[in-house]
Design brief:
By secondary structure, the protein is an alpha/beta fold. The chain has two domains: about 220 residues, 3-Layer(aba) Sandwich (Rossmann fold), CATH 3.40.50; about 60 residues, 2-Layer Sandwich (Alpha-Beta Plaits), CATH 3.30.70. The protein has a six-stranded mixed β-sheet with strand order 5-6-7-3-8-9. The protein has a four-stranded antiparallel β-sheet with strand order 11-12-10-13. Strand 8 and strand 9 form a beta hairpin. Helix 4 packs across helix 5 and helix 5 packs across helix 6. It is globular and about 70 Å long.
Length: about 325
């Protein structure tokens, strides 16, 4: 777990986010169940969970858009709305908030007028990689360009905390790499980043810390390596055109079998026994044994496979 501040300063400075026995109910539905969470300044935290897990309800309370049923939310030691009013917090959502008839430059310039002290428009557009499309109408921008525009707008008040919802949705590979390089520079300078994504490889590669939430409760909190370690077992991959999925699933220690054309992936607790069976009793070849990844931990701890961006992102409901 990394932080741009010194260990000594963390003892006296309030955390970027502190959730204390946080609960949110909608009638008889408990969207958030007594969550306790502390995120320090300078951390890059992936906040993950299946649809309906309570991610959006929690983020809404951090932004002051919703009031807890019970418990407390503190943002840099302040009430969330106070932190937002002071420009300490910005959010980059996946949709909405853009006027298609304005250019990119006009959108950034007009948004800057909302803040008492905003960073120069040219500066945030350059940081977001938008300089080359500054004169383009927002309606003519690609999905990735519009997402980078939301990022530029969020940078205007120079916030200490950035909340990102599917931040790289619609970006190409180079755009995603450039975006995360900018995020890492911000974190190294002390900015706190909390993001939700369906790209689990991004959480694995760029987050200092992964928080998994299921049914309103935190089920894992640690580095990506620590969370992956919670999903015991390994995966055996092989080329096996004649694979019988039911027969493989019946082998001792096998948890799950995925067959994709000539390829098969077997998630199991005893990879040696499975590999031995494949090599001596089947026509399987090109075997590869790997430790389980973050998606395997996600499945094991939440009971849900990662989904497409539209399915994974929660609607603004509990």
């Amino acid at each position: 777990m990394s932080s741009a501040t010194s260990p000594g300063s963390l003892k006296t400075s309030p955390p970027a986010i502190e959730l204390i026995e946080l609960r949110k109910s909608f009638g008889t539905v408990q969207a958030v169940r007594d969550i306790n969470l502390r995120i320090e300044s300078g951390e890059v935290v992936a906040f993950l969970g299946p649809n309906g897990a309570g991610k959006t309800s929690t983020i809404d309370m951090v932004l002051g858009l919703s009031v807890p049923t019970r418990g407390e939310v503190r943002v840099f030691g302040r009430d969330p709305l106070d932190a937002v009013r002071r420009g300490l917090v910005s959010a980059v959502m996946q949709t909405g908030g853009l006027l298609k008839d304005l250019t990119v430059a006009e959108t950034v310039a007009y948004t800057g007028l909302l803040f008492e002290s905003a960073r120069p428009a040219n500066e945030v557009m350059e940081r977001a990689g938008l300089t080359s499309v500054a004169d383009r109408l927002v309606g003519k921008c690609s999905g990735g360009e519009q997402q980078r525009l939301r990022f530029a707008m969020a940078l205007l008040p120079d916030p200490q905390l950035l909340l990102l919802d599917e931040p790289t949705q619609g970006m190409d590979v180079e755009g995603r790499r450039s975006f995360w390089s900018a995020i890492r520079r911000d974190a190294d300078a002390g900015r706190t980043i909390v993001f939700a994504t369906h790209y689990l490889e991004e959480a694995d590669a760029y987050a200092d810390r992964v928080v998994l939430i299921r049914e309103g409760e935190i089920v894992a909190d640690g580095t990506a390596a620590e969370v992956k370690a919670l999903a015991s077992g390994r995966t055996v991959r092989a080329t096996y055109p004649d694979a019988n999925e039911a027969a493989l699933a019946a082998l001792p220690g096998v948890d799950h079998v995925d067959v994709h054309g000539p390829s098969v992936m077997i998630h199991c607790s005893d990879s040696d026994a499975v590999a031995r069976h494949l090599l001596t009793h089947t026509t399987a070849r090109d075997l590869e044994i790997t430790a389980r990844g973050l998606e395997d931990a996600f499945v094991a701890l939440t009971g849900t496979r990662s989904r497409s961006a539209n399915d994974e992102r929660e609607a603004i409901t509990p």
